[in-house]
Amino acid sequence: MQDRVEIPLSASALDLYLKCRVIADANTIPEHLSLFVKQSEQVLDQVRTMVANRELPTERGTEFQQLLIDICVRVMCHPIVASNNYLKRFAQGVTKEQAAHELKQFSVFALQFDIAQAKLVANAPTEDAYHERLNVLLNEKGIPYRDGFEGELTGKWSPDTVHFTWLLKTAEGLDLNFEDLGKIWIGLSGTKAFVSATFENYASVDQNTALGASFGIENWAANYLWTPWIAGMKKYNETADKKVHLGYLTYHESEEKHHSQATLDELLENFLEPWFDAEKFFQGAENVLSDGVQKYYESQLETIPGKEGGNWPTSATDPRTLDPAAVPRLAISTLAT
Asked: Which H, E and C letters describe 154-191, residue by residue?
């Protein structure tokens, strides 16, 4: 049986993860958990306010603490989030052929993702969810948000604000053409596996599975996708005769950091619903990360051109270092605020 620990709801997110031995040292928070610690503190503030206002029983607040611990262990410490060796090496600098290889394969996922988003729109369980999901799709296709990365749209479409237009501008710097991008038949085995896992989980008709997959994708992207990719491309641009436009990458880096906070706020909303099923949520997240994202980077590492002698890693990730069964669980019934 796992150890049980008593941690009050007033404890900070960092203390929560320290006492449950998810984080070993407060002074050396792992890079892949740094943003999550900050953002989970914000959602815990909402929970504490709800408990103080008697809108939520203390026991339910503690259950949400446990949910965050489980997410930290099972999603945020997933190998492809915690140790993406491919992208760590990419950040050190790449050749033109290697940069083109990455953009070409990622473009397949990026365009096919719109199909998954359209399925989410079609299967929205409520009218509010329908409009929220539709706005995400319309923004991808060229209608900006009025302020930031969510909320109301401007209602004004332009080909210049279609996300694929920005991707094409990036591709031009690598001598890639329209026909080189996006089509499913361009995808390698890992790319196609990523697309399939996204269709099966992110676009699942089961709301819990879809929510978990969305959480997994958004938090992987916010914590270990855009930043190392941008770092590698900036190094490339330092010596390239033809500079690569990085607007597609930098926009999405900012967007995903906002989206990852939104996934935690949405998590709290759905946690309060009677239909919420934590295990199905985790299955959706783990499926899309293991069967999709990880297989994509394994395929990328295997097929990247010119890796011989380039100090590329032998595996896309390190093994999982934190066993979920070894992490103490909260003693929910005995806690006080």
From this structure: CCCCCHHHCHHHHHHHHHHCCCCCHHHCCCHHHCCHHH
